[in-house]
Every structure is written in structure tokens, then in C-alpha cells.
## 1
Amino acid sequence: MNIVVCIKQVPDTETQIKIAGDGKTIATDDIKWVMNPYDEFGVEEALRIQKAKGGEVIVVGAGPKRVTESLRTALAMGADKAVLIEDDGLYGADPLAVAKILAAAVKPLSPDIVFLGMRAVDDDAGLVGPALAEFLDMPNLSVVTKVEVGEGSVTVQRPVEGQTLVLEASLPAVISAQKGLNEPRYASLPGIMKAKKKPLEVKTLADLGLDKAGKAEIAALTPPPARAAGKTISGETAQELAANLAKALREEAKVI
Amino acid sequence: MDFELSMEQDILRKTVRDFAEKEIAPKARELDEKEQFSLQTMAAMGDLGLFGMVVSEEYGGQGMDYISYIIAVEEIARVDGSHAATVAAGNSLGIGPLYYYGSEEQKHKYLPDLCAGKALWGFGLTEPGAGSDAGGSATTAVLDGNEWVINGSKIFITNASTPISRGVTVMCKTGSRDEKRPELSCILVENGTKGFEAREMHGKMMWRGSNTSELYFEDCRVPKDNMLGLRGKGFHQMLETLDAGRLSIGAMGVGGAQGAYELALRYAKERQQFGRPISTFQVNAFKLADMAMEIEAARLLLYQACWQKDQHKSFSKSAAMGKLYASEVMGRVVNEAVQLHGGYGLMKEYNVERFYRDQKLLTIGEGTSEIQRLVIARLIGAI
Ligand SMILES: Cc1cc2nc3c(=O)[nH]c(=O)nc-3n(C[C@H](O)[C@H](O)[C@H](O)COP(=O)(O)OP(=O)(O)OC[C@H]3O[C@@H](n4cnc5c(N)ncnc54)[C@H](O)[C@@H]3O)c2cc1C
């Protein structure tokens, strides 16, 4: 069973995001880059399936050279090989273009399963998974919290509004991981040393015969409005509190 | 000049930070409160590979460089001093001497389990009557046929009486060169040997989640082959071990200061008095700026010493400077970090309180600040 995990490198969730001078991108100077946390679930699940069924785990990333570190982290967790499609313009590119590029890189690896995170914590678009499935012509199983691999098929669970959808698909398939799928392992210290020697292949868009021309472009980025301090509603009795709350909602917040 | 960490060092820092925040931080306060050494966190640290970090793979180690080891200790100390102590003493004092001076047989016998974190080893130097003056050890070892017979006691020995402690390296007087200078040698004693007892010490102000023991030797007999390296080389081995060990105490200073500073910065930005965050009062903002600066300076000094060690250059002076400076920086940082917390900083519910106590060991253990100044003064030719 060969498994591919697509990895995006994103700013550490603790990073204070600032908008760059061009008003369209984020300032990357002080950013610590990490593997998208949802992709970690994908790596972990791939390694567990590999342990049970054998085969190879290959991680694929697209972006500037710094993405190498996230790929090496996945190798340190236990993945066997990595492929980087190196291009400085790919960070923040149109998700459809990214999906097309990933599809071109993933296809020749002929995977049985492709994992990725259900969304990236930076742009939150959640588009690459479904688009990748489309471009690879594989079934798409999104937002998954449990995976069971059968003979030529896979059964997964997706939580929906307090219930669980059970979906079955034939393999190969694309699965996007949701929190709760597993508890990702740490890249152990011996793993970090072993990862140094594992193969990491670097490709360019030209190697794939593609360019990054997408359909969507970011016109402007604006910071969210600063959150004002909360307001405490006062009142002696429950009735009075409720009346004051209703009054504030109507007259100040203007929502009712 | 290149101030960039390697990719492996970068991944290591992120991994250990993540691990420390998820596996150690949630338990640190309770272990401190109960004065308890945790076998569970110990096993998790072993699984991650935090022991035997610079030992070659042949003996089950990780084969990393010294900077990597120091980064790992720093990241653990950023959340808890006790766990950092277990790791630092485990690597520098327990594993170090066995790895550098042990025979092949000794190394193969002990190192794999120690490097896997399945066992711990102590380094018994300090005695009730010989602290800073470690050369004045009164514990004796006398050769009787094929055995050393050890008598005496040691105090404050880290990692020696946990349920997984396998033994200790003990510095003993094995004779004398002349009237004034004793012949000192290091001898390995396994836990469970008749005549040897490691008794856990209680009532510590700091490092309460780490294990500290008194060692008692009463006609304790061990095979002659338990000598570590050459007879009479004990003092030299001890000095070298402490040189390297100082770097890990320095790492605890940098990491602990970083942790306390982060707590202070977060708190000062959230806490409002007089209608604004207390961090915006210039006096407090400047304190935080000083903390950030001093921590950075301490880190650079420490990394330089590690780099010298990794390059096989002499590093004794930088190690003493790094240890001294980092431990004193942490002293200043925790002091102001508690001050910024006001009354809350004095409560155990706030982690900064633990950092305040844990810091104090750093200017005392593995050579007090006075002894570091003495070492530096000698190395610059002042004395
Ligand atoms: C929690 C903990 C863990 C420890 N772990 C270990 C361990 O694993 N193995 C081990 O062997 N030891 C260990 N130690 C012992 C530690 O290294 C000693 O406590 C330290 O070296 C100081 O010795 P002392 O306590 O006897 O103080 P002393 O040497 O009695 O010093 C008392 C004071 O006198 C000062 N002083 C002494 N001599 C001079 C001088 N020449 N000039 C100026 N001032 C001087 C000192 O700086 C200090 O301020 C540990 C200690 C603690 C508290």
C-alpha cells in the first residue's frame, strides 16, 4: 500500500500575523514556519496504515525552499521519501492551481491513498483536497476522523452536526484529515537524524510541465477589526438583567 | 560567521518545544507540589530520545552535536526546571563519564539502557565535607584482592535513587601522591550492591520534581574492573565532566529565563491597572526589553561555548562564562517576572513562582557562581 501525504507549510499558530507593505501578502520576516497541523494527522494516519499493511509513505510539498523543513519533519516522523515542488510564488497561490500542481506530482507515484489536511490553518480555504481528488480522478473523502482500510476499499467517518457519516469508497482515494483522527507522534531525535539520509527530490514547475497561473488572485488583505472590550450588563434581578440585555442588544449592538 | 541553526537543530527545537508543552507542562506544577519524580514523563522523554543525545548510535545514542543537546535542555527548562535537571544530569553527569572514559565492556553494558531512558545513572562527587572543594573528597576505596572496598558518603546526587536508577559513578580517594594531594579515581557502583544505599532527599526548595539522593557506602565491595578509566584520573575526569555539564546548566538558565520572560510578557500585556495594560508603563516595558536582551546575550554566549566544544576547541572559559551569566540572567529575569505578576506571582497557581524557586539552584550546582568566577579569573590570568 503506497500512501502519499501532501503537506503545506504554514505560519506557526502562535505567530502574530502582519500584513506586508504590498497590502496583499503577509509579512514573513518573523514567522516561524511549521507543518500545517491538519497535515500532521495525515502523516500519522499514513504511518499507522503503513505499519499494518506495509508499503511506502511519500510526502509531497509545494512552495519555496523553506518547505523542505516541513518535509524533513515528516521524514523524521517516519515517512520514507519526500518530493518538493520548489517555487517561490506558490505560497498564497490559487488553491486550484496548487491542487493541479500537486496532482501532477502525485500521479506518477501511483498511490493507493492520498492524505492531506482538511484545511490549512493560514488561508482556511479547504479547497485543495477536493480539487486534488478531482484532478486525480479519485473519490474524495473530506473532513475525516476515522479511517479503516479494507481490500481495495476504504471506510471513513466524518462528523456532521452531532452525528457521524460513514462513507465507503474504492481505492485509490483522497482523504482529508480532521482533528480527532489520531494523536500525531513527535519527530523523535533518532528520527531527526535518520531523516537527514532519506531521499528528498526537488522538482520545478517546468519539470511537471505546468505553471502556477490560477484563476483567483488576492486583491487585498485587511486585518480583522480590533475586538472591543466586553460589556457587563448590570441589574438586580433576572428580569432587570434581561431587560437591560435586550435594551443593549437593540440600541447599542443594533442586532435585534 | 553564521548564526543560522541547521535544519535538524531547528526541527529538534520545534519537536522538543511541542513535546515539553504537551507532555511536561501540564504535570510540572503538581509534581513540584508533591515533590515527586515522574516515571511516566521520564519514559516519554526517553522515547523521544532525550538521553544519550551526543552518544554515538553504536551505544544506542542519538549521535547529535552539543548544540542540539543544549537546545533540547533549553526547551525543557522553558517549561520546567525539574525535568530539565533530569535530562541534563542524565546526559552530562550520568551518561557522559561512562561514554568518555568507560571501557568497551562498561559502555556496552550500561549505555544502551541509559540512552533509551530505561535507566538512570548518578555522578557522586559532592560530599558533606567537600562541595566546592571537590578534591577534598573523604570517601575512600581500598583494593582488597580483586575488589575495591568503598567507605564514605556523598550528598545531593541527582538521579541516583529513582526506581530506575541503575548505579552511580563515585569519586573516591584511592591513595595519595604525596602528603597534600590525594589520588582520586572514579568507580562504578551498581544500585543493589551490598553496602551501598542511595537515600532520597526531601524538602528541596527547587527542582522538586527531580530526584536527589544521599549515598552511603559501608564496606561496599565492587569488582576491581569497576574502575572508570585509569586509576588516579578521577579528578581530571571530574573537571572535564563539569566543564561540559556547565553548558547544560547554562541551558537551564537560558531556557528557564525564556519561560519566565514569556509568562511575564503575556501577563503584563493582559493585566490592566489604571485603565491600561501594565506592560505599557514605561518602567515595565523597559524591564521586559532588558529581559529579552539579556536572554539573547546569554544564549549567544552559551551557543558560542557549545560551538567551540563541537569544533574541539578549548571551551572551559566560555563554559564557565556561559553558565555563570545564564544562571544570573535567569535570576534577574525571574525576579522581575514575579514583580510584574504582583501578588499573583507569589501564588503557586502561577507558574512563574516555580521558575523563581528553580532558578536558585543554577548559581549553586555544578560549581557556584563564586567558583565560576574563580575559574574565569584563573583562565584570564588574574590569579
Ligand atoms: C539539587 C542539587 C543537585 C545536585 N546534584 C549533584 C550531583 O548530581 N552530583 C554532585 O556531585 N553534586 C551535586 N550537587 C552538589 C553541588 O554541586 C554542590 O552543592 C555545589 O558544588 C556547592 O557545594 P556546597 O553545597 O558544599 O557549598 P560550599 O562549597 O560549602 O559553598 C558554600 C558557599 O561558599 C562559597 N565558596 C566556597 N569556596 C569558595 C572559594 N574558594 N571562594 C569563594 N567562595 C567560596 C560558595 O560559592 C558558596 O557560596 C547538587 C546540589 C543540589 C542542591
## 2
Amino acid sequence: MSTNTTTRRLTMAQAISEATAQEMARDPRVFVMGEDVGKYGGIFSATTGLLDQFGPERVMDTPISETGFMGAALGAAAEGLRPISELMFVDFFGVCFDQIYNHIAKNHYMSGGACRYPLVITTGIGGGYNDAAQHSQCLYSIFAHVPGLKVVVPSNAYDAKGLMTTAIRDDNPVVFLYHKGIMGLSWMSYFEGSTNEVPEEQYTIPFGQARVVREGSDVTIVTLSQMVQKSVLAADRLAAEGISAEVLDLRTLVPLDRAAVLKSVQRTGRLLVADEDYLSFGLSGEIAALVAENLDTLRLKAPVRRLAVPDVPIPFSRPLEQFAIPQVDNIVASVRGLMTFKLD
Amino acid sequence: MEATAEQLRWMYEKMIEIRDYEETMSRVYLEAKLPPKIQKGLAFDIGAGPVPGEMHLAAGQEPVAVGVCAHLRRDDTVVGAHRPHHFAIAKDVDLNAMTAEMFGKATGLGRGKGGHMHLFDPAVKFSCSGIVGAGAPQACGAALAAKKLGTDAVAIAFFGEGAANQGAFHEALNLAALWRLPVVFVVEDNKYGISVEKSASTAIASNADRAVAYGMPGVLVERNDALAVFTAAGEAVARARRGDGPTLIEVKTDRYFGHFQGDPETYRPKGEAKELRQHDPIPALGAVLRARGLLDDAADAALRARVSGRVQAAYDFGRNSPYPEPQDALLHVFAE
Ligand SMILES: Cc1ncc(C[n+]2csc(CCOP(=O)(O)OP(=O)(O)O)c2C)c(N)n1
Ligand SMILES: [Mg+2]
């Protein structure tokens, strides 16, 4: 990145649509399709302004036919186009998962590398605003579980722009999951740390590079997406108590920056995974396993702790949802708990 | 099929109840969602207030619900979608428990777990889903069960014209015709799927025309009129009950509010909703009742007061009920 870049404060939604617009201007093969991506500009504003700039040929409102347009993304990508296909809420994956799981993820492999599918699936994730069990899930682990999909989960506008540009230029299918509660929408309360300075110029952020959002020496909080913003607030509170927490933003699940996780835990000796996906069989277990597999290279001062949705669907009612989704208070309490252990 | 006096009165009263319910919700929903009570910089906060989350209202679409449900019994199944209140009310879902659910209260249909898109009332065989198109195959299942159990119950799937482009819709139609199921598919064509006009999402003008491809009758109701729906649905329900198989009905109806509350509606021609309200189906049915000597000003006023008392009582019940305990979130993942 050059030194004389102009930056502005952008919301994550603005950063994503800007990254898309700049890449569409640079590369005529890129086009966008999905429900309400045109006139409406995307329900979560991830495509705002694109229709005016590029017209309906390149910004296509689709029928509510997710299997149709996910399959079409694959078919168009195979022909050399670079589709960006929006699944409005990740929860709707169920109606189009065959195209994603059995085809988009696997065709490159099954063709022995002969065919490529340069496409991006963008999708809204996360809860916290009472949208209940079919509109509040994160599910990134499910996408990361199947081999063949790169999985990007940004926590702020700067990262979102760079990662989105990388995603569009990648020759593989990329699932880009943006949390609704950090998009900076005018109609949903959000964590303000997600809105930050973003260069006007295009730039890329390589996949597989976690970012130390905040350095610390007592405990490592491995996290991603909106939970990064919650973890930073928790770390502030912990600092006031004399506990120094390092916050590591994974940024991409596939590829996963395993080295960054290990490096941090080697230093701190304590690990908390703060995750908004379901607890079992997912990201938090993966990170815990990574540490367990490398116990010969690090010394834990406390058992690994995981904070995640406790294996229940996301409930509607406010007190239930606040209980089910880990909050800043829970992160603080978990870290305090970790500090009381003495393993040797 | 001629509606009886009793059916006419029922439809009229239910339409007023639905409208009252939705208009009330449009106000209650906004409580505490606007500045200055919310985070600085926001115009609206979807997660704030006594009824948080998404809210899809059905004012204007009452004829579809009452015209169909006038033919139903308690043991008939109704599967609705993300815009479910009018169907729920027309199917006699417990109004207090339904309202408490939207307030997220322990006394709600789902003890606060479901919210407005996920209302389940097994007592009257009502359910709905926030996933567009999901209901059509589920209604087939209810109809299949009726057949296997040897009852003459029928099942209705209600969904929007946008849902008719979902694969599940097409699979469900084929299943229903293949297995000759006692099911009626009712498409509400309110012209929009969120911001996308039907003409921009659907290659043909009428979904009723799709019926022929699956070997079932297709009926287009071209007016947002309770009696027109009543007539079409009467034949379809009777046919299903007789064991003669499914029907697909599409009704042209009107959505008075935005897709959801808080929708900026920039995709909609200015004044469109106001214009649609000029063709309100409720006074139209009222005029029919009056012409038949079934309604006068005094009776109308009495009926409206009764309905409004019922609706207000439901909102009070919802508002004043207790919240569930936070850790109740852990209950009901599995049946005990
Ligand atoms: C599978 C799926 N895709 C997309 C959505 C998002 N969504 C919710 S309602 C809606 C529009 C539905 O239009 P229509 O079926 O016409 O019903 P209406 O809202 O007009 O009543 C969309 C796209 C969803 N809930 N489920
Ligand atoms: Mg519609």
C-alpha cells in the first residue's frame, strides 16, 4: 500500500460494496446476483450503489430461487466469469446446499484440477437483534468443514474491503460471511469498532493471516467476526482488573492461520475461544484440538475454554437470546475463570 | 358456492380483527425503536422495544386468509410463511398466546422461543416458517397423514408469489398431484417479494397457469375480494375433502405496509400503498353484508368495539406477561 493513501471512515457494508465496485470496474467478468441486490442495494447494504454504477446486466436481482442462482454461479464461473452470488441470510443455505456443498466445493477436485470456479458467495450471519432460529445463525463452521471452500469472516471495514478484493480475485470459491451486527446499518445497533478508516485505493489482504487486534500476555482470546468487537470490549475491562488479554482475529477460517494461534498461546499459556457459532463440532473445537495437538510445543497454565452458542437454536426472546449468544460479560467471566487455574 | 349469513359475518369480523391486529402491531412495534432512545446515528433499531426482530404485516391481504379459512375445520392444517398473522387469526390460533410470543414472553405459543415468523399452535393445526417456500411440502405431509389416517381433513399451504419460484414449491406440486393429496396451495400475489416485482421474478404472469404442468386445476382470483377467494377456495377445499386431489389458487392481493416494518420502500412508486388502500376489501365486504340486511351502523360499531377489545386484551396480555428465565434457552432442544 502506498503511503499517501486517502482514507475515510467506512462502515463494513460500505467497505464491501466499495471493494465490489472497484473490482467490477477493473474486471468486466465480475457480476453480482442475488435477492434484492439491485434497487434495494442488498438487505444488509452490501451491494448499495452497484446497480446505479453498473446497470442491471451486471447487478441482477434474482427470483427467490437459491438453488437456481447458486448453480448458475457455478456454471458461469466455469465459463470464466467471476460471479458474486449473495445468499441473503446464511440460514437459507439449506435450500441451495447441494449446489454449494456437492458442486461448488468439489468440482475443482473431482475434475482433477481441470476446472476452476472463481466465485464468491456473500452472506449475512449472526444474531443479537431477535431474529430467531432461522435468521440468526453463524454457520461458518459448516462451510469450513467441507473441503474446497475458502471461508472469510471479517470483523471490521478495513479488513472487509481487503479480504473482499482478495476473494473476488481468488480462483477458488470463497464464502464471505458478514455479521449483520457489525455492518454499520442505520437500522440495527452495531459494535462501533467495526467502522474504521478505509483507504480509497484498492488493496488486498491475504487469506490465512490472523491479526493481533490487541496484544496481551496473560491469555489469548481467539475469535472472529462480531465476537472480535465484543472481545476488545472485554479486554478493556480485564485490563482495568490487571489482566492482559491478547485478542486474535482469525479473519479467515479456510485457510486457518494455525501458526498465529500457537504463537500466541505459547506466550500466554491460556486460551479462550470466543465464537458465535454452535459449540459442538465446530470452530471452537477445531482451535482447541489444534492446541491439544501441539502440547509438546507449549505449556498451558489453564485448561482450554470455549464460549459459543450452547447447542441450542437461537431463541427469539431477548433474555433467551442474550443467554444463548456469548456476551462481553461472558468473555470477561471466562477469562477471570482461566486466571484462577494453576496447572503444572 | 354461496356464503351463508354466518360465513359472511365470520369473514367480515375476522377481517376487521386482522386489520386491527396489524395496525396495532405497526404502532407497538415502533415503541423504543426510534431516536433518541436508540444508539446514536441509527434511524431505527430493529432489536429494540417490546416487540423486537423482523415484523411482516399482512394488512390488505385479509381476503386471502378469511376466504380460505371460512371453509376449514379445527382439524384441518394450515401452514403459513413469514407473514403469518392473518392466517393465524383466521385459523383461530389463540390470540393471547400468539401475541405473547411476539413479545417474547413465557406465556407465548412457543414460550418466547419462536417469535412472529415461527408460530406453532397444534390445537388448531397451525404452523409457519421464515424460510420462503418451506411450507408447501409440509402441507403435503399433513395431507398425506390425513389420507393415511383415513380422515377427511385437508391441508392448506399459504405463501407469497415470490415463494412460487422456490424449488420446494415445484416439488410439492408434483407430490401432491402424484399422490392425489387433499391439499390446496394458495399463492398470495401481493406484487412484491421484498423489493422485487413479480414481473421481474416470474416468467409468466399467473402462477395459476403453472398448475396444468403438474396435473391439477389452477385458479386465478383476480380481485382482492373475500367473496371471490371464498368461491375459489370452496371448490378447492371440497375437492380435496372428496379425495379428488390438490388445487393451486393464486390471489391478487395488496400489501399496505412495507415488506417488513422499517422497510424504506424506495422501490415502490410513491403513493402506491395509499392508492391501494382506496380499494379496501373490508368495507367492500361490509357493503355486501349491508345489502343482505346482515349489518347496519349500530351492529358494525358493536362488532368493531368487540373486536378491538379482543385485540387490545391480547396485546395487554402479551405486554404484561413475564419473560422466560434466561436459562430456559436450554430447554426444548429435544422432546423428553
Ligand atoms: C429461502 C429463503 N430465501 C430468502 C428469504 C428472504 N425473504 C424473506 S421474505 C422474502 C420475500 C417473499 O416474497 P413472497 O413470497 O412474495 O411473500 P411476501 O413477502 O410478499 O408476503 C424473501 C426473499 C427467506 N426468508 N427464505
Ligand atoms: Mg409477495
## 3
Amino acid sequence: MKIKEFSAYLPRPATLKVKKELSELVTLFEFENDSGRPLMHKPGQFIMLSVYGVGEAPFSVSSAPIRESNNFELAVRKIGAVTGIMHDLKVGDKVGIRGPYGSFFPIQKFVGQDTLFIAGGLGYIPLRSLLHYQLKHRDEFGRIILLVGTRNPKERIFIDQLAELASGKDVEVLETVDVPDETWKGHCGVITTLIPKVRIDPDKTNVAMVGPPIMYKFCLGECLKIGIPSNRIYVSLERKMKCGLGKCGHCQINHLNACIEGPVFQYNQIESVEEAI
Amino acid sequence: MTAYTVYLEQLHAMLAAWSKEHQVYVPTAVEGGYFDFKPWREGVEIAFDYDLAYNTLKRYFLPPKEDLVVFDLAAKTAEMVFDAPKQLLFGVHPYDIRGINQLDQIMETGAPDQYYLHRRDATVVFGLTPMRVAETAFWSSMGAGEVDRGFDLFWTKTGPSTFLVEVGSMRGEKMLLAAGELTPASAGAREAARKAHLKIMEMGRSNALNFDWKQVPRLLDKCWNSPLWQKKAELCLACGSCNLVCPTCYCFDIREEADELLQKGVRFREWDGCMLTSFALVAGEHNFRAKALERYRHRYMRKGKYIYDRYGELGCIGCGRCVRACTTNIANPREVFNTLWEASQHED
Ligand SMILES: Cc1cc2nc3c(=O)[nH]c(=O)nc-3n(C[C@H](O)[C@H](O)[C@H](O)COP(=O)(O)OP(=O)(O)OC[C@H]3O[C@@H](n4cnc5c(N)ncnc54)[C@H](O)[C@@H]3O)c2cc1C
Ligand code: SF4
Ligand code: SF4
Ligand code: FES
């Protein structure tokens, strides 16, 4: 047995650099690693973030993997203890991080192909990492189609960035809200209704889909219907997570650990896993 | 395996000697006709013929509550903390050593759990051939009646005051011989130990799985929709007792506390259980296993299939502790697997 004076549970320090409100409940945080080293994450991976004395929680890294920078971004919705206190952090405050952990979107498989991004609600946060990577290396990828669905206009996040993308040539953006209000002029209805609206070539398109559990139930079927095989569909599954190391058991999906084999799964890996979708 | 003959009158001096460096724990009778491991002291009577230790021995490697990291909240710094007292478990039955070996495997896989490994390394395990079988136990039919690793010494009582002691590690042999040379076991003594082992395996068969345990994973493959889950789960109190007493249940929660002045904090892990309603509950009140049926089924799938698919052995060693602990009499892997097996025989 290898015994080392080392703890996988020991967080490393990071400093809050930028904080920006994205919606009433969601805030974008940019942290810098105190180590002076980049995070070295891959798109779709997550970290465990600690606010000492309060707790620790998993968050997807939302920024693209960049070797030249020690900074990384998270977008966090205020919903409980850790996420609540995070919203009170001030620039310059210290937090602890562990990771990056988990599986990721295999960038190489997306090269030279079209990508259909399907982002439901906060699902845009992890997808943004892959999207930004593709934009940074735009020539290496085919068409980028981005479908965004939000419950209502008030909950929309990254509004300015989406507007910028929509007005540019790099990404084809289609957005919808489930329940509109008087400010909303765009498409209405659940995100599934956007899928038949895009013309795609199923033989050279990969799908990267992240959203709430209910979204998967409908969107996966819709993707298969337009001819995309399940081994070209990638989803990210959220589960309760405590350790991120495959030990605490909370993230189990049948025999799988969402923190090790996931959160990103190729759909054919989990099609027959009863508890997955 | 090297083996020695040890006489009961030699044991006392040995225990006293081992106690100098280790906290020694031994099986002893407790209230209600049960047995449990307790610290050995002068005068503590060892129950060599105990049938089952009420509480699981996992607590010596994975304590119910264990500190992981301490914080200085003012300076916002964190430090790891390890605690691994030197201890000796004397008299562990083979099925429980199997349980420990399984935890070893799980904790060493992927990111090795240094907290567990520290404690495991500081713990000496002396096995003991059982002389009685608990009414609820079925380890004999689960392939858990024998063990060939995971112990430092293995003791078998071969007569009223004699033991055959097999050596499992150099550390064990050194401890055994610390007080002086011992007689190497004769062929006759080895034969007596073999017979004692066969006898207990035979006794264990009175309460058994009705089919080869290696079939359990493939049986469960076909049982996701069995009506049994609902029938049992209806009575489940979600008390988590079956998780707590189980030697191979290791899931834990991670929490933390800060002192009143908010100067120091500590993050610790604490036993958790998949049968508790909060286990898969996340912020926003979404529960990934909200129904009793889902939780009950998950536990048996882990015991009979998921662990097997990952580690090549069943996640249940047949100790029978959960059977004893469940107040509504639904926790019983032997009965669940037998019932499912029975039903599957009628299907084909
Ligand atoms: C892989 C992954 C990526 C995630 N990415 C993001 C993200 O980018 N942005 C974002 O806002 N949220 C994300 N979440 C959800 C986020 O982790 C939860 O909202 C958060 O844990 C709630 O913590 P809390 O302390 O505020 O809530 P509390 O209800 O006080 O939760 C207490 C603890 O339970 C656990 N827990 C509770 N809810 C969840 C949950 N939904 N998922 C996992 N563990 C949970 C955590 O350990 C948490 O600290 C992600 C979850 C996972 C599993
Ligand atoms: S499931 Fe029950 S019988 Fe099996 S190892 Fe755990 S406590 Fe023992
Ligand atoms: S001990 Fe029995 S009642 Fe309690 S959680 Fe386990 S199965 Fe349910
Ligand atoms: S989060 Fe602990 S096992 Fe996955």
C-alpha cells in the first residue's frame, strides 16, 4: 500500500478577481489560482470550490481551457449555503479549490465536424467552455449551432455575449423561453421545439447537450429522430457530489460514478443505464 | 503458510506485550447476548466463540466521523490532518476480513484515500476461525468463509487451550515471536485446524443462498422491474441502520463546523447511507432517488451487482448484520436473492 502525506481533500487557494451579475440569481466569478499555474481543465470538467467554514460544492468551469492564463470562470446560481455565501464574496477574497475532476467533451472528436450545442437553463455554463474553445480555434471546426432555452426572460444569462454571438458569423444562435413576458420578442416554447428548426447534416454533427433532467428526456429523442446516432451525442449529468473522487457514493448512477466516469457521457454509454436519464 | 502452536496460557503475556504499542481490541460478550469488539485490558474476557460482532469493524479504518482538513478562517488557509493510531484487532472472522479487503480495494482505486490507508496500515489484523454461526449469517454460501490475505496472523482454536496460528505477514510473525520461540505446528495440528474450518463451513450451510453466489450479478441484471422491490420498500423506514452496520457500506457525507469566534474550522466526513431520504437530495429539492423503492433496489443492486461489476466480488459478505438491525425485517440479502432466484426459475 502506498501511503503518502498527501490529502486529495486539501483545497488550493484561489483569489476572486472579477464578479459580475448575470441575472437576479446567477453571478459570474473569475478566480485566479494563487499557485501561479493554470487550472489545466478540459471543457465539461468541474472543480470543488470551498468557502472555508461554510462548505464545498461542485461547479463546472465555464471558461475555455487556456494554458496562458491562471484565471478561470465559474457561473453560479444562488440556491443554498455555499452558493449563497459565494454571492457575498468581494474581489480579493480567498476561496479553496480542488480539481479539475471528471470526464470532459473530447475536443478531438469535434474537430472538422459541426457541433449542435443544446443548452437548457444553466446548462449553458459548462457548454460555454467548449464553445469558447471552438471559437478560439474557429478554423478547426465546422458549423457551430447553438440552441438556448430558458424558463423565462428574467432567468436568461450571458445576454450580452449571446447577442454578440447572434450578430456575428461564427455561431448560428437560436433562443427560446418557455414562458415569455412583455419584454420578450423572440421564440417561445420549450427548447425541443427549436431542434426541428435547424437544418443539420446528421453524418457530420456532434451534439453537446446540457440542461435539467427533464430536458434530456425530450431532447435526446428529438436528436435521434433527426438522425444523429447516440455515440455522437454528449450530455453532462448532474448528481449530488461530496468528494469528487469516486469515494463518497453520492453521485452514483447505477454502477457509474458521475464524478469519475461523468459528468460528461457519450449517450450510448448510458442509454441502457436505468437511472441515468 | 508458516504456522505455530500457541497455548492459551501464553496468550495473556502476548496481549500484554502487544498492548504496549497498540490499542488491542478483542471480541467480548455485551448486553443482550450479543458480542462486540472492545478494548482489551487486564481482566477482559475474550469470547473466542463469538458468533458475530454486533457493530462492523469498518469503524477502525473509516470512523463514523473523521476530520479531513482544518481551516484558519481569518488567514483563509487550510491544512490536512491525519490520525492513525496503532491498533490491533484480535479475533476477526474471515468474512469480516473479506469486508476489510473489499474496502481496501475500493479505497485504493482511483485517487487513493490516504486517510483510510493510513489507518489501515497502522492496524494489525489477527483473524480467527469462527466456532459458531449467527442465526442471520450466510457467509458460508457467499464465498466469504475463507480468506487468504488481509491478516497478519490467523488463529484457529484446535483444542480447549491450544491454537494453530498461521502467519500472514512478517509484521505478524514478528509480533507473535516477540516473547520467544514457539513450536512450529505439527501436521496433526494443521489437520485439526482444517477440520475446525470444515466444521464451521458446514454449520454455516444451514442458512444459505440457494444457488451459486457467482450467479447473483447476472440474476440481478434481469430483476430491475421485479415486484419484490416495491413489496419490501413499502415497509422501509429509511432509518439507514442496514447501511450503518454493513461492513462493506462506506458512503460518507462531508460537512464542516466553525468555532464561535469564526477563527478555526474543521471539515470532516461522516457515515452516510443510501437508504436515507437525503442521500441523493440536491439543492432546489430535487431528489435523484426520491422513492423508497429506488433506494431499496439501489442498495441490493450495489451489493449483488454494481460492486461485482467493478471489483469482481459481491458487495455483500453475508455477515447478517443488516438482517439483525432492520426493525421491519426487510433487510435480508439472502432472502432477497433467493426470492428473485426462485422467481427467475419459473420464468424460464
Ligand atoms: C458536475 C456539477 C457541475 C455543476 N456546475 C454548476 C455550475 O456551473 N453552476 C451552478 O450554479 N451550479 C452548478 N452545479 C450545482 C451546484 O453544485 C449546486 O447548486 C450546489 O452544490 C449547491 O450548494 P449549496 O451549498 O449552495 O446548497 P445546499 O443545499 O446548502 O447544499 C449542501 C451541499 O450538498 C451538495 N449539493 C447540493 N446540491 C447539489 C447539486 N445540485 N449538485 C451537486 N451537489 C449538490 C453540495 O455538496 C453542497 O455543498 C453543478 C453540480 C454538479 C454536480
Ligand atoms: S448487506 Fe447485510 S449481510 Fe451483506 S455484508 Fe452488509 S450487513 Fe452483512
Ligand atoms: S434497516 Fe430496514 S427499515 Fe432501516 S433503512 Fe434498512 S431496510 Fe429500511
Ligand atoms: S462525488 Fe463522491 S463518489 Fe462521486
